[in-house]
User: Fold these one by one.
Assistant:
Number 1:
Amino acid sequence: MKLFYDCNTATRLMIESEDRELTKREKILLRLHLMTCKLCRNYQKQMKGMAEYLNKHFAEEHL
Ligand SMILES: [Zn+2]
């Protein structure tokens, strides 16, 4: 029984979520995977940190 996403699917969805709204099912399965997978949690943290850095950078540039 394949209940959770594997790491490839999880990371792909994290990247896609930047460009499109994930479906409810995708969000739930992704969250379940993140709860059980430390590697992908780290990856998500890195992605989030980078997005915040870029936002901050561009926000300051436009002041
Ligand atoms: Zn994973």
Number 2:
Amino acid sequence: MTDLDQYQADANEWGISLRERFELDVHVREGLKPLDQMTTEDHEEEDFRGKVGDVLIANRLFSKAKRYMECSRFGCRLQCQGEAKHEFFSPLYCDLRFCPRCGPRQYARLVAKYSPVLTHVQTHSKRGYLLRELTFTSKNTGSLISEQIRRFNEDVKKTLEKLMRNVKDWGAIWCDEVGFDNTNLHAHVLFYGPYIEQERLAEVWRQVSGFEVVYIRKAHASGILALRHLLKYVSKPPSRNPETIGLLEVAFHDRRRVHAVRVFYNFAGADPDNLESKWDKCPECGAPLSRLPGIHRIEELALQGLKFIGSDCLKRRPKWTN
Ligand SMILES: [Zn+2]
Ligand SMILES: [Zn+2]
């Protein structure tokens, strides 16, 4: 019997939902803040996370549900192997795309990752090449499913490649977005290359995707600011409704949300899916860091006076994409 089967059996026996069984697990673990010491804010967040978790569980994304519900509640201790044996703590994050805690972390990581290529194209600018912002839209069908997202991204890539046939050294990075509280899938693209007519762009997008609407405009003079503008959608969950957030997580499961092609890809490489944000060296002395056994409530680790550093526990999800 797997953990999950056991959980399901417990839930049936006790007459509670599977989500409540997961939650219970969180509460009975050693070192947990007692329920009566939790603040209203804690409860609100827990309630929100629980509702997102329900949607994930209903769609059989059990481990994601558990992680989403537990995000940043627990942490681990890290110790450096230097003489001073510096100690830190690091929260265990869920790294889900529409997590209000993890979104800003992903944003920071992506900005750091793609800023160098923008500095590069601006300092080695090719004659006639410009940075532009393109927007590709699709038809709002009232729901969003994984296959729709896959196809949409493929169409964006095909359209850019068709427009840039026989052109060298162009590149693009884009981010899939939905409107606030709706299922209107569209992509914001930061594009570097020769001039494209709006009319031609619309024509090719229509041929490839069947959709009508595109926009093109000059990007902000600072490429870095344009990049930040593009990626800001990563940092903000597009709804306050947990049901909507849950369904977005389901739709984007195993789908990449941020895409880079050509110069942008060549320069920054494939998205390492967070592997690079791992802390493996002590920020104080540079000695290797190792994780000490056990997980603890975040409040406890903070009360012990340990210094906070980012997550080191990302390796277990090498396949999760952004
Ligand atoms: Zn999270
Ligand atoms: Zn150290």
Number 3:
Amino acid sequence: MTLKPHTRYSFGGWARLESVGEAQAGLYLESPSGEVRRATEMTISNYAPWRQYGTVFATDEQTVLARPVVRFHSGIGRLWADDFFLVEASDRCRNMIVDGGFEGPTAQPGSPRWWFDRYGLTSAGQIGGPDALWGLDRSEHYQGKQCLRMTNPLTDIGPADAHPVAEQRLAPGLVLHQGRSYVFSFYLKGDRPDLALSAFAGSWYSYHQFKATDGWQRYSFPYTPENDETQPFVRVDLLGQGKVWLDEVQFEEGTEPTECRDWEE
Ligand SMILES: [Ca+2]
């Protein structure tokens, strides 16, 4: 396949693995001459049912040929792979975030793909189930059928202590350019007024504290990098005790947020 320059792609496939002892295998998109080598975000689970593995990435200024590759890193076993996909983000999709509406495939049951929690997963009570401290909520949404719920059960803790976050690293390869304007936006609702939160809008250098209310409201934060940012990410942190619902998360170029769109629309 030919990969276009300055384009965002989602790549992956379905796989299943049975090994003798420990074995590691992965799905890759690679160019024969080595300019592109993208692995799916997780290694293939041993003896798990068929599941989808994927990754997102952005190309640089080159046009390159690439092909899917299935590879054992170690161990002995049998691997089945099927239904590979390569999806190009549409020109209409300004959103650099994947699954910003939390409607896409899950990583684990109840857990949105592409999104990570740095602290909450180690909190007491984070076992899963309908009231997990961090995960998809099908009884609430701003748009679609579900959103992300984050709960902080503790009282009066400071920002340095454990608190739930929703974090996504933007497509590897994507660069935010020095001097250009970007804007991070999302809809958020709290379980009471005056909830303390913070957000990182693209970088550690773009930190914003804000208060949420008990109704759905859109929040947006600008970012103009002083230097090229090569590892951009976004993050929403719930600082104090409470519960919030997050939906329609978007990161785009420009100064004002536009209507939230999904990567694969
Ligand atoms: Ca949604």
Number 4:
Amino acid sequence: MSQEISSTTFVRSLQHVTLRQLSDFLDPQDSWKKVLAAIHKPTGEPRYTQLHLRRFERLVSMGKSPTIELLYDWGTTNCTVGELVDIFLRHELLAAASVLLPDKFQMDAGVQRHVPVQETVSPSSQATRLFDQKEQASDCPLPDSTTKPWEEEEPDDTGFYRFSYDRLAKITSNFDERPASEGGRRLGEGGFGVVYKGCFNGKQVAVKKLNCVDDISPQELKIQFNQEIQALKMLKHVNLVEMVGFSSDRDHPCLVYELMANGSLLDRLACLGGSPTLSWSRRCAITVGTARGLQYLHVNHHVHRDIKSGNILLDEALGPKISDFGLTRGSARRGSSTVLTEKIVGTTAYMAPEAMRGEISPKSDVFSFGVVLLEVLSGLPPVDDSREPQFLLEMKAEIEDEDLTLEDFVDKKMEDGEPLAVEKMFSLARLCLNDRKGRRPDIAQVLRQLEDVLTTSAEH
Ligand SMILES: Nc1ncnc2c1ncn2[C@@H]1O[C@H](COP(=O)(O)OP(=O)(O)OP(=O)(O)O)[C@@H](O)[C@H]1O
Ligand SMILES: [Mg+2]
């Protein structure tokens, strides 16, 4: 007798025949790994580490299905079909979604009809890579099980890989300086060094090669770097970029992160490389996810210090993840070095008045996030030398003084900007950007208000 399945059905009550059908779609090409990586504990931490992943991988050689074992295991938490289908949609695993809820997902004629299964932060129906990095999955093959060239590499007990510099050189084609969009490896450059695209264990990664700067010795850089790794090990959340590992055997320490296929929010708002405009509903979901990541940092007594759209990265499903939450602490400790001066100049557009004086608190992150909200509303860069006013922040005052209307400020490229929701987001940005930190909301209040903006948008 076939089973009636709805989004509230517990995964643990699915019949074996259904699990078998799912495994037919998810075991090949290791699609189950995407599902595993997307499963989180209620605290936001990933449920499974690299060690778990290995354990599931081993099941294949024992003739078992990793998909079925994974669903048995996760099923013990009383997770539902709705949650599982949401994960499928986020990763475009539509065939698997249609096994569970065939009425809601049509697989024929390429039609992808998405009926929201449950409230979710990032609308997953349009999971897409906006930013063509000229690499196919086949260019990043899984290691061959017969040769196992890097068999000695095992993650440590927290799931991080300790790489050698040479190994990272190898996976980035010798730190190929040609842009990734032109077939090279360079993704971009920031205040700490250059970021390259690499490939490790069948997964695309971003390798940040840190530069030694004049005012800091290689030894000191390594101490700071190690301290930051300790911090990164503790901080895990679905809206924070995950670290895969690091290398520290040469003068250029490197950090290896999961690759965020859609680059930074800064670049996507600017439609760099011809990427399509982010819709209003997508922008709302991005702000909610970012606020969740920031709330997690603040709850864990961590101030980011460099919140900006360039540090909000977007995954394949355009889900936001905050990056550089470890390094920025290190940078602030560099004192009044030239690099710090440059860094302050580079991020002035986001800095709270008290942060300019060196006073850092969670409320200074809230201020910076207010600038990000202005970027999301307007699609404009935070600073533009050829613009009057140069700083986006100053446009807030122009709107308050009625020299500029909110309607004129809002990004004309969006077609679904709902006026009430837009107004609510702008009011929230104003609160975040209050010069007096005591008058700014805390991140929990910001998050609640953004969820309200999201609901307002969805209702219209
Ligand atoms: N994990 C990642 N996946 C994809 N792209 C990334 C990743 N990390 C960084 N990048 C890209 O690399 C570029 C440089 O990033 P980096 O963090 O070094 O500098 P930044 O964010 O511009 O400045 P800062 O040094 O102040 O953080 C950015 O354009 C960013 O989009
Ligand atoms: Mg960055």
